[in-house]
Amino acid sequence: MSLVTEEIKAKAEYYSGDEICQLKSKELLIEIGMPNGLLPLRDIEECGYVRETGFVWLKQKNSITHKFEKIGRYTTYGTEVTATVEQHKIKKLTGVKSKELLIWLTIGDIYIDDPASGKITFKTPAGLSRTFPVSAFQVEEEVKDGKEANEVKEVNAAVEVKDA
């Protein structure tokens, strides 16, 4: 059963399609001060964000398992991931499990107590928690290509102005 109702969708910033949802999920993570690689989802069908309550959802075609290479941990993301977000916190998380030894544990909260520490904590609903470096979940953006594209636009604009 989905936690996302039509009533919630009506109040939300709502997007559909993988490309825009990938972009919006990374933008949201950055906006709330979390690492941009925290939700490495694929084939996202829809996503939404209700700013008044902080409720967020992402729906993908299939569950995926992702390995965070820098810490050697596997995390599985269900077809629907929901949470309530605020600055440096993801609470009431559903649809995410992490493998600890041989057991898959549900992740309920993710938070950064002190951004200067460079540490992020993952907590289960049972109260167990594990802390890792924030850098393990940060994905380097291909900024170089974006800068080159902007430079080309500026050059083109300059050329157009000179021709006029």
3D architecture notes:
With 164 residues, the chain is an alpha+beta fold. It has a single domain (6-136), classed as at5g01610, DUF538 DOMAIN (Roll), CATH 2.30.240. The protein is 25% helix and 40% strand. The chain contains 3 helices and 10 strands. It has helices at 6-11, 18-31, 143-163; strands at residues 13-16, 44-50, 55-60, 64-68, 73-86, 89-100, 103-106, 109-111, 119-123, 129-133. Strands 1, 2, 3, 4, 5, 6, 7, 8, 9 and 10 form a 10-stranded antiparallel sheet that branches. A hairpin with a 2-residue loop joins strand 6 (89-100) and strand 7 (103-106). The radius of gyration is 18 Å and the shape is globular. The model is unreliable at 144-164 (pLDDT under 50).
